[in-house]
Each structure stands twice: as C-alpha cells, then as structure tokens.
Design brief:
Elements: H1 15-19, H2 24-34, H3 46-55, H4 65-74, H5 85-113, H6 120-125, E1 128-138, E2 155-163, E3 168-176, E4 194-198, H7 205-213, E5 217-221, E6 229-233, H8 244-247, E7 256-261, E8 267-275, E9 280-286, H9 295-303, H10 306-319, H11 329-357, H12 366-384, H13 394-404, H14 409-420
Parallel strand pairs: 1-4, 4-5
Antiparallel strand pairs: 1-2, 2-3, 5-9, 6-7, 7-8, 8-9
Length: about 425
C-alpha cells in the first residue's frame, strides 16, 4: 500500500461532518414519519430491528430467521432474553418494506450530500454524471412466480441510475429479470449540463435526441450497423456526404473526428479511435463539442462507465451473504433494500475518509473498506447494546481505513481486475 503524502492527510473538515453516520434516533424518526414506529414496548424495537437486518450483512454467511434471532440476542439487540425467528418475520411483514426503502433514500441523501474530490474540469462542465444499467440476480426456483427471468428461471433485475461523483445509485428499481433495459427511459427533467454514459443496451436515437433537447450530454458506443452519413471532417471536405464505412479504410488507423447526420435527422459527433488489441476502430457517438473535449478525452469519458460495472460487483459482494427468507415480494425487496443500506453505509464512510484525506474515493478498496467497517460496526453495536449510537469513534474508523485501504490508481485497477476477474477497458 502506498503511504499518503502529508498534504493528503490534512483537511479542514469539521468533526461534526465526520461523525454523522447513523443513529437509533434517526431510525426512530424515520419510522415515526412512516407511521410504523413503536406504539408500545416491544421485544424488538424498530431501531433494534433495523440494526439486526443491517448486521445480517456482516456475517459472511446465509442465515434463516431463527438463526438471525439467536444472533440478535447475542448482539443484545432485544429487550428480552429470548426472541423467536417468527418475531423478526413479523417485523419484516409489518414494516420491513416501508422502513428499508425509506432508510435507503435517507442514507442515499447523505451519500449524495458529501462533496467528494472529483476532477475539477468534469465538475466545471457537468453538474452530474450518470449511467443507467441493470444486473440480474438469480433466485431459488420456488420464487419463479414472483420474479420470472428468461427460460422460466427465477431471477430479478436491479435497475440503477448510477451517479459518478458519489459512487451511489441515485435511483434504484427492482423488477422481473425479463424486463428489457431499453424499456427504462432516460429522464430529461433533471436539469441541464448532465452527462449520460450510455450502454449499448439503451442505444436509441430518440433517447439521444431527448437528452440533447434537454440541454444535457451523452457518450455512447456507435453500433456497428449504424452506418451514418458524414457532414464534415476537419481538413477533409471531400468526404462530405459519404458513409462512415466508406472512409474508415482511408485513414490508416489514424484518429477520426467528424459531425454526422443520424437517420432521424439529428446532427451529432462521431469519434473513431483505432484499437491495437482488437485491430478495429472503436466508434463513439456524442453531442459534446470538440472544443470542450478532444477525441481521446471522449474515449476516456466513456471508459468511466466501468465504475457502474464495478458498482454491481461490489453490490453482489454484499448480496453474497443474503438468503431469501420468505416467498413474499415485499419481504424479498425489504431484504435487498437493507443490503443496499449496508452498502451505502460503507460508501458513506468511504467518501468521508476520502474527504478527510483529500484523495479520490475510488482509491479506497471497497473490499478492504467493507472488512474494516464490518468489524467496527459489529463491535460498536455489541458494546453499545440497546443504546444504538454510532456517532462515536468514527474518527478511529476513518484512520483505520486511511491506513489500510488506500491503493494507488494503477494498483486499484490491477486489484479490481484480480478480485472480480474482469479486464477494465474503454
């Protein structure tokens, strides 16, 4: 691990900004707003129930309701010496779905509110950078009637609008796995100067046109069969009105940056860069001006889309400990939302650590952060018992992550490729 430089260790962030993570009082306030708070003294109070479900993600193994109830007693998160699995199941039925979803949005607001370090040039040009994508999670076949996937298999799809500055899902939707990506619309009401990094699964000229009309920007790979007509290439007026496929062989692997007309009449920009490994041109479609971002920079922008792929891998790292406890759509979604909340807690402390050290949050390994956070989270809950206060010792946690989870950008790329078995490319 590379040591942090002196200027990376100092920050003028206040202690209050560091300490705010999650407390029992915040959970009670959420429950009260939803009308699912404790009406009377219970064996398992609402705040205790939430922390039990969050801590279930820290165990590294799959538990049923009865085993989870035994862990709750071990963690001293009950008001009685004994509590049954049926009681936790009843809590999931009565308020699990509402509460887990509300907690997700509450923590998401916290995460999006952290002003982490980001490329100043990107911040200058774009208010937000989004990417939309989905990932399939396979379930036990007995759940096929609730979540139907392809070929009659039981599976659900998590659809995410990922925000790059915070590394969080600004929008999340759970649906049947057979629901196609292109059915999800790209909202135009989010304001101007937003950049969308578009996967080929969402490739649609009408979508691109709406983004442009809303004063937003996009970068997408150009489909191979989209043989667009060239309007202009700088210093090459002779290629006007020709098809892109006609002029590609004439450039001898050199860079191509041109304006084109799509089949719907819209004028866009196409960038073509030669890839030595694949021995082919990689073509990108965008509406970003050439004066603002050069051809190679367009490719680098699109390469940022890999962050959402890594995000899904990190989520599945958390989901690997989930055992679906009930054949009920509400309870399944409640379990998933509690897992999302656990992920957001890790991302929140990751962002705060980066803010304190003045480094990029991407330089902090998720797996290492999760391991450190898990041990800290469990030990603090157990020591605090039913008081459930997590505003203490946050500085110690940040210091541990700073010293043990910081990896240089090159090391992080190699580490990510090795851990998840992928190759990060444009």
């Amino acid at each position: 691990m590379r040591k942090l430089k002196k200027n990376e260790q100092k920050s003028n962030i206040t202690q209050k900004e560091i300490e705010e993570i999650l407390t029992g009082k915040e959970i009670k306030d959420l429950a009260n707003a939803l009308g699912v708070d404790d009406k009377r003294k219970s064996k398992l109070l609402v705040s205790q129930f939430v922390f039990v479900m969050l801590l279930a993600n820290t165990l590294g193994k799959k538990l049923n309701f009865q085993e989870l109830s035994m862990k709750a007693q071990e963690w001293k998160l009950t008001n009685e010496n004994r509590i049954t699995g049926e009681r936790i199941s009843q809590q999931m039925k009565e308020r699990g779905h509402q509460l887990s979803k509300a907690l997700f949005h509450y923590l998401l607001k916290k995460v999006l509110g952290v002003k982490g370090s980001a490329n100043k040039r990107l911040r200058k040009h774009f208010n937000k950078i989004y990417s939309q994508d989905g990932s399939v999670i396979h379930l036990a076949q007995k759940l096929v009637d609730i979540y139907t996937g392809s070929k009659g298999q039981a599976a659900l799809k998590i659809q995410v609008r990922y925000e790059y500055f915070s590394g969080a899902a600004a929008l999340l939707d759970i649906s049947k796995a057979k629901y196609h990506d292109n059915n999800y619309k790209t909202p135009a009401n989010l304001g101007k100067d937003i950049l969308w990094l578009i996967d080929l699964g969402y490739y649609d000229f009408e979508r691109f046109s709406k983004i442009k009309s809303a004063g937003q920007y996009f970068v997408s790979r150009l489909k191979v069969n989209a043989d667009v007509s060239i309007l202009e290439i700088k210093d090459h007026p002779e290629y006007a009105n020709k098809k892109l496929s006609e002029i590609l062989p004439l450039f001898a692997h050199s860079e191509i940056d041109c304006s084109v007309r799509l089949t719907n009449g819209d004028i866009m920009r196409v960038v073509c860069l030669w890839n030595e490994d694949k021995s082919e041109y990689w073509q990108y479609l965008t509406n970003i001006n050439a004066e603002d971002f050069k051809a190679l920079e367009i490719q680098m922008l699109y390469k940022m889309r890999w962050q959402i792929e890594i995000f899904f891998l990190e989520l599945k790292h958390v989901f690997s400990t989930i055992k679906i406890l009930s054949p009920s759509k509400e309870k399944i979604e409640a379990q998933l939302y509690f897992a999302f909340c656990y992920y957001l807690l890790i991302q929140l402390i990751r962002l705060k650590t980066a803010l304190v050290c003045r480094i990029k949050w991407q330089s902090l390994s998720f797996c290492l952060c999760e391991r450190i956070f898990r041990n800290w989270f469990v030990s603090n809950i157990v020591n605090e018992g039913c008081k459930l206060k997590l505003k203490k010792k946050i500085s110690e946690l940040i210091d541990k992550i700073r010293r043990n989870a910081y990896i240089s950008v090159i090391q992080m790329t190699r580490y990510t490729e090795r851990i998840y078995g992928i190759r990060i490319r444009a």
